[in-house]
Amino acid sequence: MSGMVMAASALGDRALGRQVHCQILRLGFGAYAFTGSPLVDMYAKMGLIGDAKRVFDEMEGKNVVMYNTMITGLLRCKMVAEARGVFEAMADRDSITWTTMVTGLTQNGLQSEALDVFRRMRAEGVGIDQYTFGSILTACGALAASEEGKQIHAYTIRTLYDDNIFVGSALVDMYSKCRNIRLAEAVFRRMTCKNIISWTAMIVGYGQNGCGEEAVRVFSEMQRDGIKPDDFTLGSVISSCANLASLEEGAQFHCMALVSGLRPYITVSNALVTLYGKCGSIEDAHRLFDEMPFHDQVSWTALVSGYAQFGKAKETMDLFEKMLLKGVKPDGVTFIGVLSACSRSGLVEKGRSYFHSMQKDHGIVPLDDHYTCMIDLYSRSGRLKEAEEFIRQMPRCPDAIGWATLLSACRLRGDMEIGKWAAENLLKTDPQNPASYVLLCSMHASKGEWSEVAQLRRGMRDRQVKKEPGCSWIKYKNKVHIFSADDQSHPFSGTIYEKLQWLNSKMVEEGYKPDVSSVLHDVADAEKVHMLSNHSEKLAIAFGLIFVPEDMPIRVVKNLRVCVDCHNATKFISKITGRDILVRDAVRFHKFSNGICSCGDFCTNKSRSLQTKGESAFANSSMQFGIRIVHDFYISLLTLVYQSGRCLVAIWVLDGNVSHVKGIFLAVLLGQGIAEVTGCMPKNPSMARAILGLRHRTTCLHTGTPVPDLHIQEMLLKQTDNARAAVRGKAKLDQLEIDAVTPLYEGCRPEDTRLKVTLMALEMKRYFADPKATKLLRCHADREEKKREDDANDPEINKKDKMLSHPKDESQ
């Protein structure tokens, strides 16, 4: 009868199990231990813990096996308190009892209590076997308790269990989780006998510690030893390729999964989705996801995180909502992906809603990573005061990453007050973190306060704090090529620098101007330009342009965030060379194609002066539209930036030339009201006019040009709200007059016809897409050019210019 019980348990057949139990009772075997233990085990495995307890309580003359079975069942059903009660009630405990308790507590996340039970076990002199060692080492790894782990390792040597394959694998896993990969490697190399578990533990350990190259190398060794990988091993090495952004090797493992028949396993499929997402092939990741027969929580989270890394907030949120509709419960990692997507697209209200929903609707307690995402959400959008208020209302102080996130935003926005507060707290939280010093140096350098910069650097030297050197790498023919700034160590350095020099000259011709504000050294501008031109990512991109075939994208990974100048330069390089360039930095993915970045320049959005913004817009327009207009007049038509269904159009009218933008007489930031419904440019001309809703107040910065009064600004904002309300309500837009641009005439000199030409271009049907608008601008440019030529040939004007350029010496 006990065999029948075990068969029902293995099949998971509750009806059969109950029938067998009834038969046992009919035959009068219900009180015997040899049938009672299997029944308790069966009911516990089926989740019928109440029936298991009833059988246990009705048993007479319970033995140790019966107690052990009951403890195992209770711990399996997460009834830790009841299991502890049964354990303490036992008069006699054997090694299996103690091991069961240690293992169960570890599996229930109570690793500290598992260590306490292990200490009691040793104090009572109970013999410890390989299974006990394996369980307690797992607990040490989960707690990252390196010292306790080393003591247990020493104990395994004394008891001659260190050579046991099960204990050796557990030691490798423990040291890996304790971030001591060298000791893990030493244990692994000393093992005389290894199985698939041992090899997998070492591969996973390398991956967890950021040693992806070593993980791939160990996997190759395992294959040479004739050990076939299982789905978990293959999934682990693919995950290492994903962390390396090594699509070439990852694709090879993809082929291996297909050949070996492991592709359908969900562990392998999830790893492949993660691989293609982290390598910038989000379309391939989604295709693989769709091909999967079954999706678990990890599958959805992998794809959500992939879209989030690209800053595709709309796709991320749509996928998240679909996940909920499928009945898949999100975890904390899923919400990190959603919140980061909102952060990278500036969707503050959406992000705030998801953060509250995470706690209220899903019962997930926010961790440091979630709070950091919210700090980043407010900070990136320029709401530094709200970020400060959010931090002050947090139940605990942010970790070092949270403070560094706020400090980084303060550097971009130039907010010294909140920046100093963030820096002070960052130093308290992590005194050896170089981020606080570097970001503060950047803030002072941007204001020209070089004495403060020198003082901060002296503080770094005194405290022996070293800045993490920036480096970029690119993989070509299964070899990783690593570059640092001004790197001369590469065998092809000469060719790389020649290519870079050629790119720099071409970029300058296209209107590129280095952003020297990124240089934190008090040197001449020429030296700053030289320092910028040799940044690590530029060297890696130049290498890729030389060696990577033209039909393949160039994939570069950087350990730090890409600086503003390199971001702008890479856009120019992609336009000049016609190559797709994918850069994965410490924050997100950037896909540069034809002069446009997938992030929509959101990551480089600085609250700088309008003068600096104007220079950037001036460079972007000639690159993206190829409209060359005379130097004394230029209008920048920035490409529409799609970000999670919200589209921003920046229009800058500049007065100056490529080298020196001397003044800006108008700066208007317009928002697309229709985007909240359609997520794309509207085709209806009336809807196109609704786009002209003013998003921020108008600012006129020109000599003699008054700033529009408050009444005009309020009127424009009211018109914008009306337009958006009409769009949301699907009103008849043909009757809606949006004349937001008309009052702007009042802010300009009557004789200035250039602005009128600009406004006429904006009022064209289909907005920028209408060729008439471009033609109008070109015609005006031709007229301006002709006027310049006529003025140059006019002797009276030339005479006046000479008098102005050579004023009379008053001493004469």
From TrEMBL:
Xref: Pfam families: DYW_deaminase (PF14432), E_motif (PF20431), PPR (PF01535), PPR_2 (PF13041)
Gene3D superfamilies with a match to the protein in the record: Tetratricopeptide repeat domain (1.25.40.10)
GO molecular function, one term: zinc ion binding
Sequence intervals crossing the membrane: none
Record-linked InterPro entries: DYW_dom (IPR032867), E_motif (IPR046848), PPR_At4g14850-like_plant (IPR046960), PPR_rpt (IPR002885), TPR-like_helical_dom_sf (IPR011990)
Residues in coiled coil: none
Domain DYW, first and last residues per copy: 511-602
GO biological process, one term: RNA modification
NCBIfam families the UniProt entry points to: PPR
PANTHER family per the UniProt record, alphabetical: PENTATRICOPEPTIDE REPEAT-CONTAINING PROTEIN
Protein name in UniProt: DYW domain-containing protein
Origin organism lineage: Eukaryota, Viridiplantae, Streptophyta, Embryophyta, Tracheophyta
